[in-house]
Write a sequence for this structure.
């Protein structure tokens, strides 16, 4: 493994004129900008990952997490996008949120503003219904929605997020219509479901894992069953093509020197196979699915296109 | 102080009421571009502010007509403006020059200007306050205060 | 469950865990007592730091800080009329007049005993009744929460002060500030002028520091000739055991305040200051001598302080069981729990009983320690600190204000915003516009709007959804009673008087 690192460093040194200095990367602490307060899902991911990145970057690397909360992460990601691309400022990145913000709001960045390092968490959407509603299978839910358009109220966190896109996909696939009730965050939405104030909810699997007994969880929006809840069938198994989720990863500003980028992506790749890291993430309810570099970039582009498509047909604000 | 000294329109309450009316009316403009349901609460509050300010204005003018003198806002406007100006300057200095330098200068400066002139006391107070803040926030909690935008890059 | 509770006890008494609570309470009192610094800010600074600590040490610190700060906020509220935390606003009503009458020491003693009482009651509610109380939370959907907010807003009419027009202007201003930010349903900007920093709305601490702390600082600097802050001779401190007998008539106020505090705590979103306002209003309404309230009635301090501590532990009931915090401080604490992998939910009590129940014990001990640490040590030293020469005190408070506001989100924008509110606050202070309606309006205005609009969405536009269940109807009846009640009572008494006169 160390060999590869050395080779990458060497290659970098040959390619770049400033290579000699950069080969030492990192020679000072690396700042990771988190767009949310300490203790949020994204923050916990960054702080859990930090020691492992340090370990695999080697040579006494140190990561410092800096919280810049506000505007659903937009303040932090804008700061990261506009930082010097020297490898000493990284940022966390949330999908589809960060791309949706470039569509529904003015943003000082776009999808080309970043060097894509690695997506670490993929938290798939689930459809849940309240016990009161009596809609305890997907078929019943779709039948009811077809019969009475708009009669089913759907609790979710804010418009223009992954929950919303999952619902749009569901509506398009089944030609149904629901009444959206966007709460501020998923915990209030979940509480309204528990109390039976809304009939259905679209949440993420990590958010309902602890509440499986109090809610009907109808399925999970993944290609294969989630390790997080292996008993839970996917929608595909139930004949509904619905794959969607909330993703969290790491980016750097665009134009990162290639050797630095290589070193970082390498560290993320090694981290993805570290059992200790996987255990730590499981303990904080973060389903891990690591996608690095170009693949991550392609994923972001796809999500942008989807969001743009939705916005053009049904703008949400 | 004879009542005639304050012109009717320069009475503090009248001026404040006029100020509120102007600002509230200004804020009303963007509500026309918002969705009706979005604009409902803010517009209601702004209209409420305008109506209430009109009432305030009328009652204050009645008092003026009755020859009641308005209470002056302050006996020493220079000191008030000076104090507020210093606080704003301190915030700007923190932003541009850096927190610790600005704080170490501001504490003794403000206290000195406003009448506390014991050099030893000033020195001790400045050292204790700045030192404690550094020890708790920077050293203990690794909390960064602004380092000064001027020195960045 | 109760055996789990006892099982968790030994861990709490381990040296590090217990020391954490003690340090937490002391730092909480200090933070609360410093004008400008708030519990929200202290815990949000602490959360990233606790990542490397043992869970019970981290949680003990937070429990201690929360309890300590809710009392500490009373110290400057009494001595300087600057509420140290948002929840201490109602403490200024009678606490400051008491200090001016030379009863500041007694006011602080009432505050510390009441705070401890509320904290202990709340901790017991959390320890013994968390699961059933979380079911109560579930009864409150958007339409019910909307009525709770309206109930709270209705109490503004008791806070209008001498001039109702000015009081209403204050209230409208507060509600207007609460709608700044993104629209609760659609997320589009309202009055943010393109500033991303304003998109999440204006944090209550920013407004509070500006409105309440800046005008007194300018006062301190404006009249420098009086070089003393608060004369310690006038503080009138006597040993706390001598003061206790004078408080024995406050039992009903304490019990009522605890009940209100616990109840507000388990409802998501309203929190601290609303509990204190409501408890104060209820206590005054039922008092035999309502005319002494606002003039330095110790029972008013008791009512406000018991309630703002009674919602500390109970705010964690919905936070731990449902993931929805009952107060702003509990919201930050929830982050501290997540950092340690403690996911809120019913499984939490099964998966980590020692930590969760240990945390509850820490709340209880935090509240008890408050009497010992707050009663003797902290109060006296703080009273002395506030005794600094006025210009020096003013300049130190300016620094604290900047730190307190900057540290919430780590940005200067908030500091400038706070200074703007400070200028507004100074004018309001000078022209005798009451400030409490601004605070209540800010807390409850946007909150009411959000829940109303969620409720209307659930009812698909039909306003009848607001009256469809018993909980809502009870709340509507209560609101009407609060508004109409006093005038009916007055008419009844007046009539009775006339009858008596006629009979006599």
């Amino acid at each position: 493994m160390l060999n590869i690192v050395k080779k990458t460093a060497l290659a970098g040194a040959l390619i770049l004129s400033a290579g000699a200095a950069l080969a030492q990367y990192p020679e000072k602490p690396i700042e990771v900008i988190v767009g949310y307060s300490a203790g949020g899902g994204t923050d916990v991911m960054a702080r859990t990952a930090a020691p492992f990145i340090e370990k695999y970057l080697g040579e006494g690397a140190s990561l410092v997490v800096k919280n810049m909360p506000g505007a659903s992460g937009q303040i932090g990601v804008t700061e990261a996008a506009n930082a010097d691309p020297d490898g000493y400022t990284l940022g966390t990145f949330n999908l589809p949120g960060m791309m949706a913000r470039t569509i529904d709001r003015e943003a000082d960045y776009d999808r080309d503003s970043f060097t894509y390092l690695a997506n670490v968490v993929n938290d798939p959407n689930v459809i849940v219904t309240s016990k009161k509603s009596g809609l305890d299978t997907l078929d019943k839910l779709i039948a009811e929605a077809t019969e009475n358009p708009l009669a089913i109220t759907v609790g979710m966190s804010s418009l223009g997020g992954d929950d919303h896109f999952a619902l749009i996909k569901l509506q398009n696939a089944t030609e149904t219509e629901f009444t959206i009730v966007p709460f501020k965050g998923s915990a209030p939405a979940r509480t309204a479901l528990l109390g039976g104030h809304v009939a259905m909810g679209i949440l993420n699997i990590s958010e309902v894992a602890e509440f499986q007994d109090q809610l009907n969880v109808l399925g999970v929006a993944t290609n294969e069953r989630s390790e997080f809840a292996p008993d839970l069938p996917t929608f595909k198994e139930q004949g509904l093509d619905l794959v969607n989720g909330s993703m969290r990863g790491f980016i750097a500003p665009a134009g990162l020197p290639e050797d630095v980028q290589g070193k970082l992506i390498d560290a993320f790749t090694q981290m993805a196979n570290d059992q200790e890291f996987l255990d730590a993430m499981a303990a904080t309810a973060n389903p891990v699915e690591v996608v690095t570099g170009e693949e991550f970039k392609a994923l972001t582009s796809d999500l942008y296109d989807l969001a743009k498509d939705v916005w053009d047909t049904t703008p949400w604000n | 102080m004879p009542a005639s000294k304050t012109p009717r329109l320069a009475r503090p309450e009248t001026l404040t009421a006029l100020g509120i009316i102007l600002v509230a009316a200004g804020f009303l403009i963007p509500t026309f571009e918002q969705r009706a349901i979005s604009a409902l609460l803010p517009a209601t509050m702004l209209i409420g502010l305008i109506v209430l300010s009109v009432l305030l204005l009328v009652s204050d003018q009645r008092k003026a007509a009755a020859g009641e003198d308005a209470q002056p806002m302050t006996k020493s406007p220079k000191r008030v403006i000076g104090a507020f100006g210093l606080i704003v300057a301190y915030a700007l200095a923190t932003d541009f020059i850096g927190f610790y330098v600005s704080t170490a200068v501001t504490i003794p400066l403000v206290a000195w200007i406003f009448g506390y002139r014991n050099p030893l006391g000033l020195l001790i107070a400045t050292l204790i306050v700045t030192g404690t803040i550094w020890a708790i926030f920077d050293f203990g909690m690794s909390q960064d205060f602004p380092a000064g935008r001027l020195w960045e890059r | 469950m109760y055996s789990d509770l006892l099982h968790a006890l030994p861990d709490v008494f381990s040296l590090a865990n217990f020391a954490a609570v003690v340090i937490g309470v002391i730092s909480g009192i200090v933070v609360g007592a410093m004008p400008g610094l708030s519990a929200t800010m202290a815990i949000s600074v602490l959360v990233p730091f606790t990542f490397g600590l043992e869970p019970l040490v981290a949680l003990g610190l937070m429990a201690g800080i929360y309890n300590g700060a809710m009392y500490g906020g009373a110290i400057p509220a009494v001595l300087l009329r600057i509420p140290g935390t948002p929840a201490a606003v109602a403490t200024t009503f009678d606490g400051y007049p008491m200090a001016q009458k030379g009863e500041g020491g007694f006011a602080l003693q009432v505050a510390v005993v009441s705070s401890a009482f509320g904290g202990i009651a709340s901790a017991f509610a959390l320890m013994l009744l968390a699961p059933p109380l979380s079911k109560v939370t579930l009864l409150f959907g958007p339409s019910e929460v909307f009525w709770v907010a309206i109930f709270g807003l209705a109490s503004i009419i008791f806070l209008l002060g001498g001039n109702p027009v000015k009081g209403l202007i204050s209230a409208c201003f507060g509600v207007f500030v609460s709608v700044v930010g993104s629209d609760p349903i659609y997320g589009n900007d309202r009055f943010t002028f393109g500033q991303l920093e304003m998109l999440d709305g204006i944090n209550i601490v920013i407004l509070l520091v500006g409105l309440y702390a800046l005008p007194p600082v300018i006062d301190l600097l404006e009249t420098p000739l009086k070089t003393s802050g608060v004369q310690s001779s006038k503080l009138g401190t006597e040993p706390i055991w001598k003061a206790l007998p004078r408080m024995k008539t406050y039992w009903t106020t304490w019990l009522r305040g605890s009940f209100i505090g616990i109840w507000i705590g388990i409802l998501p979103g309203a929190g601290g200051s609303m509990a204190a306002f409501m408890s104060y209003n209820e206590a005054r309404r039922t008092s035999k001598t309502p005319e002494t309230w606002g003039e330095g009635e110790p029972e008013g301090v008791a009512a406000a302080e018991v309630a703002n501590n009674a919602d500390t532990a109970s705010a964690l009931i919905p936070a731990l069981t449902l993931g929805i915090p009952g107060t702003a401080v509990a919201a930050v604490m929830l982050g501290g729990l997540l950092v340690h992998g403690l996911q809120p939910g019913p499984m939490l009590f099964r998966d980590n009983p020692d930590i969760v129940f240990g945390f509850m014990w820490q709340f209880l001990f935090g509240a008890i320690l408050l009497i010992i640490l707050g009663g003797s040590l902290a109060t006296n030293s703080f009273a002395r600190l506030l005794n600094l020469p006025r210009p020096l005190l003013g300049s130190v408070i300016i620094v604290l204000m900047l730190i307190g506001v900057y540290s919430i989100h780590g940005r200067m924008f908030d500091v400038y915003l706070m200074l703007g509110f400070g200028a507004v606050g100074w004018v309001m202070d000078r022209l005798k516009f009451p400030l409490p309606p601004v605070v209540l309006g800010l807390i409850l205005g946007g909150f009411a709007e959000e829940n109303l609009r969620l409720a209307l969405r659930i009812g698909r536009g039909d306003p009848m959804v607001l009256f469809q269940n018993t909980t809502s109807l009870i709340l509507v009846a209560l609101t009407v009673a609060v508004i109409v009640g006093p005038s009916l009572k007055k008419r009844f008494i007046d009539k009775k008087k006339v009858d008596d006169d006629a009979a006599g």
